[in-house]
Design goal:
Shape: globular
Order of helices and strands: HHHHEEHHHEEHHHHHHHEEHHH
Bound molecules: NADPH dihydro-nicotinamide-adenine-dinucleotide phosphate
Distance between the termini: 52 Å
Radius of gyration: 22 Å
Number of domains: 2
Number of helices: 17
Largest sheet: 2 strands, antiparallel
Helix content: 55-70%
């Protein structure tokens, strides 16, 4: 087979637009972010746990490699590929593609979470030392990084056989470094198996909460029982992951699935960045136990609850409105018309700020860090990083919405002047 010449020639007005710092970003980010993952894990287990300590606590090469880690990682991905293929749950259609077709997706991620949970409990019942994940964390991260690179190379090469309409508009600049990073093919599939959709919410996201459970079991090994702080971090993050999988269908309309190609940025984010940096608080707590008062715990639980409420309600309101604007729960909301025929909500959650779902997400992120106390910056890594990510994502989304809706978007911005934080930003 030869790469489609149409695919190689395909160009559109979007093709020249470069995100994430263009070629420089595409070269630096794949070097810098994997090193950041390894650095943060090393810092989380060092006695000082300081991101500023000098010299930095760099891992030795024998701390980075363990063949067991590779076996576990590949076994985990294979298990979830099998669960993906099981005829469980319903099948949904994605949005209409440029060739006017729609792809089908199995909505069975929540089943995958439950089945892997049951399997883990069985393993624990058989005496499997789940706490050993603490020792394996660096080799596991190293393997996830290596797998992300190899998988991205495979995706880049195979994209040259894809028809032009199957390429992401922003991933076909002709610059190999940038295209490798941002992703050329929009929905790479092997048969019916959708590689991007599979990676988006399954091995990495479920892997994250399994790693958290491993940290909790390590704490039990070391101190006899899990701390309140560890229980809160595990519960909050499990709620977040379970919610994402319960509402898996909503991912079909997100920027990642609809707009972005599948390249290093998403592969690494899904398989390495999320599972090994989002749960740093749990890894930190193994080495740096914290005592938490009942009042402190109650305040943190309330903050997480408020964040979750805003996050879930606002996401559900928009999803319901996009699916069926006549549904009684959204039919009375005030909207403005756009030239595309779609309407924009200007009351309800989406009349409070232009991204209420990001506001709720950030409140939860803060609640995940607070159980780790105030003496270290490291457990706050996620909320700081996530604030930057969501501000950048909001900006990307605004540009796409302005291009889509033109004057109507400007009217919406005038009606709802704040982006994420009411009266602040
Ligand atoms: P959003 O759910 O925020 O969707 C943005 C889209 O919503 C816009 O492109 C537009 O699309 C539509 N929209 C915007 N304003 C309105 C309005 N007023 N009325 C109706 N429709 C509107 O997208 P994201 O994918 O960024 O976020 C989804 C969730 O995922 C969020 O809760 C976010 O916090 C979370 N998230 C979490 C991440 C993590 O790492 N934990 C990473 C990224 C996101 P259109 O008009 O075409 O429908």
């Amino acid at each position: 087979m030869k790469p489609s010449s149409q695919a190689l020639k395909h160009k559109s007005s979007h093709d020249t637009e470069r995100e994430f710092g263009g070629t420089l970003g595409a070269v630096c980010i794949p070097i810098f972010l994997p090193l950041t993952v390894l650095f943060l894990i090393s810092v989380s287990r060092s006695p000082e746990a300081s991101v500023l300590q000098w010299p930095p606590p760099l891992p030795s090469s024998d701390q980075l490699w363990d063949p067991l880690a590779l076996v576990i990682l590949l076994g985990w991905i294979a298990l979830h590929a099998l669960l993906y293929l099981m005829p469980l749950g319903k099948v949904s259609e994605g949005l209409v593609l440029r060739d006017a077709t729609r792809l089908k997706y199995p909505i069975n991620g929540f089943h995958g979470l439950c089945i892997s949970g049951v399997l883990l409990l069985l393993f624990l019942g058989l005496g499997a030392p789940l706490g050993y994940l603490f020792e394996l964390l660096l080799p596991l991260a190293m393997c996830a990084i290596a797998v992300s690179f190899l998988f991205s190379v495979y995706l880049y090469i195979r994209s040259f056989w894809a028809p032009s309409h199957a390429l992401a508009l922003g991933g076909n600049t002709g610059n190999p470094l940038y295209d490798f990073f941002i992703g050329r093919e929009l929905n790479p599939r092997i048969g019916n198996f959708d590689l991007k959709y599979f990676c988006e919410l399954r091995p990495g996201l479920i892997g994250w909460v399994v790693i958290n459970l491993g940290m909790l079991m390590k704490e039990v090994e070391l101190r006899g029982s899990p701390s309140l702080a560890m229980i809160l971090v595990n519960s909050f993050q499990l709620l977040y992951v379970a919610d994402a999988l319960w509402n898996e269908e909503a991912v079909l309309t997100t920027m990642d699935i609809v707009h972005d190609g599948f390249g290093f940025m998403l592969v690494f984010g899904d398989l390495a960045w999320v599972p090994f940096t989002y749960g740093l608080q749990a890894a930190f707590l193994v080495v740096h136990p914290q005592t938490l008062s009942s009042l402190g715990a109650a305040v943190i639980i309330a903050l997480n609850g408020i964040g979750y409420y805003i996050f879930r309600k606002s996401n559900s309101q928009k999803n319901q409105f996009r699916r069926d604007p006549t549904h009684p729960s959204v039919a009375r909301l005030e909207t403005i018309a756009t030239a595309t025929g779609k309407r924009l909500l200007v009351s309800g959650w989406w009349g409070l700020v232009r991204h209420p779902n990001y506001l709720g997400d950030l409140l939860m992120a803060l609640a995940w860090s607070l159980p780790c106390g105030f003496a270290h910056l490291l457990p706050y890594f996620y909320v700081i990083y996530f604030t930057v990510l969501l501000i950048h994502r909001e900006d990307r989304d605004e540009r796409q919405c302005r291009a889509k809706y033109g004057l109507a978007w400007d009217t919406y911005c005038r009606r709802v002047p704040y982006r994420i934080f009411p009266y602040i930003y």
